[in-house]
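Hi everyone,

Forwarding the result from last night's run.
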Amino acid sequence: MMSVSRRDFLCAVGASSLPARLQTSHGPLNIVFILADDLGWAELGCYGNSFNETPNLDLLATRGVRFTDAYAAAPVCSPTRAAIMTGLHPARVGITDYLRADDPRYLSPHYFSLPKALKTAGYHCGLIGKWHLMGDYALRKGDPKLHGFDEVICSESSYIGPGYYFPPYQHMKEVQPRRPDEYLTDRLSEEAVEFIERNRTRSFFLFLSHYAPHTRLAGKPELVKKYASKPGAGKKRNNPELAAMIESIDQGVGMIWDTLRRLGLADRTVVVFSSDNGGEERVTSNAPLRAGKSTLYEGGIRVPLIVAGPGFGKPGSVSAVPVVSMDLYATFLAIAGTRAPQKLDGIPIQELLKDPRKYQERTLFWHYPLEKPHFLGGRSSGAVRQGNFKLIEFYDDATIELYNLKEDLGETTNLSGKLPAQRDRLLGLLRDWRKSLPH
């Protein structure tokens, strides 16, 4: 496990001047962060999907801001989750690929993790669901409780890879179902409602981390049947199993919002919804984006992001400002009025939403080194986006690809030969940035 001291952290963007704590007359805002697993950018109704039914998430978008150019920090789950928990690029943390069952790596408790930071501001912090920031679950070196969570509920105690959505839950055998036909996504949403209810009188941070819709796909039978009978149902595009799983997530979002409203907390809570990486091409299509999970093409790293809450821009607005997973850490700390002891790779985003003129163009980087190709097709590579241009460098054969995302969202035309100056400039930025990473 790579250990990096606080003073040795390098930063791409500092967070030295965080805004004052966002709060109402009742105190600081609560934060509910809902993270889906492998949910592609094009799966929600508010992102243009006409097959999947996501009325609650679509409504959430009308209450807040929907981001069109939000990115995961990596094309697979563990690195993105590490970025969210630390505000640092995964390559600085030493987790650049998903953690396997026998992986010695874990997110070290030495990092000033998100719940630790929020606790300094008086927040009660809860994790419900997936963690996946430790490989060896027997040793528990990266246990979420060591990172400051006051409550850890229905979080895996063994490797989660195969996916279990109906009892018995083989990845957490200690969790007993409340009903014989219980569906795990529903259980997590119920636990979220109960967390909010018992913590209604104090400031809280809830991280609801769904296991769905990660494969193996398994939706509730009645919902799968509904989607299978819809026109256009298929095996990849318009997949009934996937659509059913997404609807269950959406129903949970509705349950949470109804609870916040019933308890008088809706105007005192920021609700954020996103995904840890793009959709898996074996079970879905990420069109109009290219490819999917495990790749640095847009289908692998562009994700949905919806932020609703006081101080986050005009309800129903859409932002094309590029943002990335690390920004969530900085944003949540800004809401709480606290700061990390180290500089961050992420920036707080709520200020630029209130006044887009404050936005300054930034450069986003990805580093995804692999010893061998990912089983889903991803290759060892790095990427950089600046403005409308994005460059991908493949480490295995030194191939360079350059795309203009404004004109070619699907990354169909490689411009590296036609625009050599742009190619060389971005490649230089990417390679210089990589030199700043711990070795």
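Confidence is low (pLDDT under 50) at residues 1-20.

Cheers,
N.
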